[in-house]
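Write out this protein's structure.
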Amino acid sequence: MVGPADWPTYHHDNARTGVAGQLAPLGTLHRAWQARLDGAVYGQPLVIGDKVIAATEHNTVYALAAGDGHVLWSASLGSPAPGSELPCGDIDPLGITGTPAYDQSSGLVFVVAETAGGRHTLAGVDLASGAVGLRRALPPPRGDEVAHQQRAALTVLDGWVYVAYGGLNGDCANYIGSVVAAPTTGTGGLRSYAVPTPREGGIWAPGGAVVHHGQLLYSVGNGESTQNYDHSDSVLALTPALTLADSFSPRQWITDNENDLDLGSMGPALIDNRVLAVGKRGTGYLLDAARLGGIGGQLTSQPLCPAFGGSAVAGSTVYLPCPEGTLALDVDPAGSMRVRWKAPVPADGSPVVGGGAVWVADTQGGVLYALDPATGAPRQQIDVGALPRFVSPTLSGAHVYLGTTTGVVAVTVR
């Protein structure tokens, strides 16, 4: 069973709040352990009971002991795709990039592995033993499979696992943003949705879907069309059957598409009955969750910052992942936004909240910060080594866990 201190999916829950209610209060940070694995860990580690689950770009899923980091089991899912086989990209080799998701009904940890030849495979790995209990091909529904990258976190919802696809860094070749869903039992037909654009429109923000009232909200990157509206540069609401229920796009979607200034770089943030969308342009759009508004139908908008990665939401405050450092934004459900602070340190990763602090990494400098939620001032910091882009901490018990370019590092918070 998933307990109150567990972290079974990206940013803790399917609303992607990034809030850990059970983390120990902040004391003095020190490194508890560091596990060197067979590749970089781009996805956020999961914590279930006494196990930390990490998946690498060499297509290996590991269970590590939460207390000291020793390997409890590992499962290999095949040779990763070497960079020489891909039309572009900045991860070499390319294996498991998206954050896994745990399904307590089946006891399986779901991941998508990219293997040699650019093939994508959904696997379910047994949490208790590491046995691979499910494996099936999961190609994107349109475009060339080798041109797609699976970076968005997986989502488990009502007996299905949802997987989103975007493109490789460089936006090369024939990729089309899409979502594919498979039953968690491993048998039965697939569901799919593809963004109705001639090309691009990737769904690649690390947070994946935000679930609200049974629908899945995804942010979508720029599409190729600058003439006919193609639902790119958008927030899309999909039903569990993967039909389009609602959408929002900025009124200047054509200009966004032409200049790579789309909403696809950060997943939607859910604040009660409001949705905040922020992308590469840096404008924040506040939307009504019950009716996203179509083209130009936001409740309000204002300049904030370009945002890349996943946000955290604590009450009515949203913590945004900005290149210059984390930004705290207070959102009034009536339809207004107010910047509370901008962090005075280069904390550009995807933030989470717990133990009386906002936790965020400087991905360039390899530093983990604990920021004061009221002011943004750093209360503690610690060197953690080389980090992947968009990295986000996992909070559980008295530890913070981070994926690194060589494995996982654990930091004790007291």
